[in-house]
Design goal:
Chain lengths: ~180, ~270, ~400
């Protein structure tokens, strides 16, 4: 090849330039379509996030199939608590309107642990205005029962004062009757 | 004095058993329109459904009322379940602050508050002045440092003000984790991309409250639209109460407000 | 988790009013150190590139003639390490297969986004400098070589054997031009790594405008030390004569850069402790607590004060050349390690401090992790392998031109 050194250098420069231009051209091809619609990000990502299926229903979602618990729950002081916190998510239980999974139901000791998560006086950070707390085992002593009692033996878990209020009514009636 | 009357439960149980055994009534019972389709669930944030969503005309805010938080960890549990967050990483967590009479602050957060707080701290030698819980989550900064530093545009602020992560573009460099003053981000060990609280954007756009707000038994977490003058957060923000944000000096302008937060809270 | 009270004595009894009291609480997401050894290695490697390039620049642009023996070697050294600069990053990324996103959609607001482009440009410039520097040698070698090597030489020399005065003058001009733009590019390549850290406002040990400067000067220190060290070791192994003038020049340059680097490192610490801003107590606790050993003892005492004394002696007093060579190798060896420790203390040390400003997490290097110790050793070995092969194509030293 009879090209002079200078010409070769110029060719190299042109080569680099062409490669850079090609590089930027291919770059534009590879950028996702929705990139930059709202800003320097992929707009489709927003829709993808919206489409992530939800796993928690709401308490309302449980009520339809559990009318019995619903009635109690709505009437009681635990109406603000989520069924799904104590039981598990809607998605683990129901799909397409049918029951698909078994939700764990707490028993015995587990129930006490669950209740004390919210009602333990010991923690000292729970405002009286927000929640009533009990100190264990004093609470059981006050009721004159064995210290092995679980909370659910006196409190309906879904409406904690249900039985107690009823018992008070009954005892009140009885007192009157006598 | 055993008051519990099990009979209603039993009745209900056998009734449902019959249902499952395939009685006609049972079939009807089960055909209730309760599909996985979330739109069967009543709307919680008014004005989202049945209306085109104008992404440019939205403003949401999150208010955490520290005086109402009882540290039950419902929110943490709900969050972990909602997004199957791997162990050891937290989209949201609840811290316990203990303030001694010497003004010394003791903070702990065992397992991110997932197990709740079952026992008081025993390792504090001095008298305790106050104890309180502080829920933490993404601050949805209007000037988000994570968005600024993301090299590939995988973390972005959507036009409606949510800071979100595009998990298809994230390279997992963790620069945003360094940049986040609130440590709200982590690398998900399974997907190997960054993940963070989205204020349950997927739920909000379906008219539902974020999972943590919805399960909070005491209303310590509040979420709503500032465009809706009837929403609770609108009233709180409009009202005279003092609201603070975390790490104001970072200049991040969070859309997450705290009510009743002491200055020791960071 | 961290309910225990802090081990180090920094619990602030003295500052009753300060709110930043420490109970060793680490945010749950902060327990894990996200930027680990690979991110220590990455600035270390680009630092070596930078320093080596400075030596070459001093010769090719500033005509420091005494550096002639190492000028070409330092270019190749820089190239070998530059080739490996991305390996630690790829090992670090959670999704390395997506690394091209950095080039495709670099976010205009991010300091990190420029990396791909800065890296590509610096690579291009360095490669072309080497081609032009070596052209006369390669034209000669082309005649004596055979097979694929010959093809390679023909490609690199643009298949031209033009060694006329005109052509060589043009080469010299091109080299000067490339080196001249190479210096800012090298400075950007490394200074910007410093900026990546310095720009993180959430981390008080990092967020400092001094960070890029510190990184840059310590980069020069490590790179020059590496050249000094490699030059002496290779010469000893191959029992070649050592050019004393050359070593003296390099050591003097090294001394200058090191004084700057060390001053800025200390300035950073002292201004923190003088300003006593809110986060000062955390930084102080970090340096005196978890980092006490690696910072004050290894980085400052052993890694900085000792070499500073030695360098002082070498610069100020007349020393026998054999002892001088020995000391030069020793000092540069220490400084190589010092810079590594410094990177460690900045990158990993900075993350030990939780953003809760109330506690410190721990970092335990793993052996067999993707970012573990073995991986670090392998990554550090690759440049030397590359260097070995580069040496087969481009003779390192003047005297083995083979012409």
């Amino acid at each position: 090849m009879g090209l002079s050194y200078k010409v070769r250098l110029i060719l190299v420069c042109i080569g680099i330039f062409v490669m850079v231009v090609l590089g930027f051209f291919f770059k534009t091809l590879l950028i996702p379509d929705s990139f930059g619609v709202y800003g320097p990000f992929r707009a489709d990502a927003i829709d993808e996030i919206v489409e992530i299926p939800i796993r928690h229903g709401t308490n309302d979602s449980c009520f339809k199939c559990h009318p019995y618990e619903a009635k109690i729950h709505k009437a009681g002081l635990h109406k603000t608590i989520s069924c799904e916190f104590c039981h598990g998510t809607y998605a683990d239980h129901v799909a397409d309107g049918k029951k698909t999974g078994v939700l764990p139901v707490k028993t015995g000791e587990q129930i006490t642990t669950l209740c004390l998560r919210c009602h333990n006086t010991e923690i000292k950070a729970r405002s009286e205005k927000v929640i009533k707390t009990v100190a264990m085992p004093d609470h059981l002593r006050d009721q004159h029962v064995k210290l092995s009692h679980n909370c659910s033996q006196c409190h309906n878990v879904h409406a904690p004062l249900k039985y107690i209020n009823r018992a008070k009514q009954i005892t009140g009636l009885m007192e009157k009757g006598q | 004095m055993k008051i519990k009357d099990p009979s209603p439960d039993m009745k209900k149980r056998s009734f449902l058993k019959n249902v499952l055994n395939g009685t006609v009534a049972g079939c009807l019972y089960l055909v209730y329109p309760m599909g996985a389709d979330s739109f069967e669930i009543p709307e919680q944030i008014p004005g989202i459904r049945n209306k085109p969503y104008d992404i440019y005309d939205q403003e949401f805010a999150f208010v955490v009322d520290i005086t109402r938080c009882i540290g039950c960890g419902s929110c943490c549990v709900a969050d972990k379940r909602e997004f199957n967050v791997p162990d050891g990483n937290y989209r949201t967590w609840v811290e316990r602050y203990v303030k001694g009479f010497s003004d010394r602050i003791y903070v702990d957060c065992p397992n991110g508050g997932l197990d709740g707080y079952q026992s008081p701290r025993t390792d504090i030698k001095e008298k305790i002045r106050d104890t309180f819980f502080v829920p933490k989550l993404c601050n949805m900064c209007r000037e988000a440092p994570c968005v600024q530093v993301c090299p590939v545009g995988a973390t972005f602020t959507s036009p409606d003000g949510f800071v979100l992560v595009d998990d298809k573009r994230c390279v997992g460099c963790a620069y945003c984790i360094q940049a986040c003053p609130y440590s709200a981000r982590f690398i998900n060990p399974e997907t190997r991309v960054v993940e963070k609280c989205t204020w349950c954007y997927n739920r909000v756009r379906k008219g539902l409250l974020p999972a943590c707000v919805q399960v909070c038994p005491t209303g310590a977490r509040k979420f709503g639209s500032l465009k809706d003058e009837n929403s609770e957060v609108y009233k709180i923000l409009k009202g005279p109460g003092v609201l603070t944000v975390l790490k104001k000096e970072m200049g991040t302008w969070p859309a997450l407000y705290y009510k009743g937060a002491r200055r020791e809270v960071v | 988790m961290n309910t225990a009270t802090v081990s180090a004595a920094m619990v602030s009894d003295s500052i009753g009013s300060a709110t930043m009291l420490i109970s060793n609480y680490v945010f749950p997401n902060d327990l894990h150190v996200h930027w680990s050894m690979m991110i220590v290695l990455y600035p270390y490697i680009t630092g070596l590139v930078d320093g080596a390039f400075i030596i070459a620049a001093l010769y090719y642009l500033f005509d420091v003639k005494s550096l002639a023996p190492v000028a070409r070697f330092s270019l190749l050294f820089a190239l070998a390490f530059l080739c490996c600069a991305t390996i630690p990053l790829l090992l670090h990324l959670g999704r390395p297969e997506r690394n091209f996103n950095m080039l495709l959609t670099p976010s205009p607001s991010s300091a990190m986004a420029g990396f791909g482009y800065i890296y590509a440009v610096s690579m291009g410039v360095l490669v072309f400098i080497i081609f032009f520097v070596y052209r006369p040698v390669l034209v000669a070698l082309r005649k004596s070589s055979r097979g694929w090597l010959k093809v390679l030489y023909r490609v690199i020399t643009l298949d031209s054997i033009d060694l006329s005065d005109d052509a060589l003058k043009l080469d010299a001009k091109i080299i000067r031009f490339l080196v001249a733009i190479g210096i800012p590019i090298a400075a950007v390549l490394h200074g910007y790594v410093g900026f990546i850290f310095g720009g993180v406002k959430a981390n008080p040990t990092w967020s400092s405008p001094l960070m890029p400067v510190i990184f840059l000067f310590s980069a020069c220190v490590s790179g020059i030390s590496a050249i000094v060290f490699a030059y002496i070791v290779i010469a000893k192994v191959k029992s070649r004569p050592i050019d004393h003038e050359c070593i003296v020049t390099m050591i003097n340059t090294l001394t200058g850069f090191f004084i700057l680097a060390f001053s800025f490192e200390m300035l950073e610490v002292f201004s923190h402790s003088y300003l006593k801003t809110g986060y000062h107590h955390m930084v102080e606790g970090l340096l005196n607590g978890p980092l006490a050993k690696s910072f004050w003892f290894w980085q400052v005492k052993i890694g900085s004060v000792l070499p500073l004394l030695l360098l002082g002696i070498m610069v100020l007093f007349k020393i026998r050349s054999s002892l001088y060579t020995f000391l030069a190798a020793g000092v540069s060896g220490i400084l190589l390690i010092q810079v590594f420790i410094m990177r460690w203390n900045v990158v990993i040390g900075g993350q030990l401090m939780s953003k809760s400003a109330r506690g410190y997490t721990q970092f335990h290097p793993q052996w067999f992790d993707k970012e573990g110790i073995i991986a670090v050793i392998i990554v550090m070995a690759i440049p030397f392998v590359i260097l070995f092969f580069l040496g087969k194509i481009f003779p390192f030293w003047d005297k083995d031109n083979g012409v």
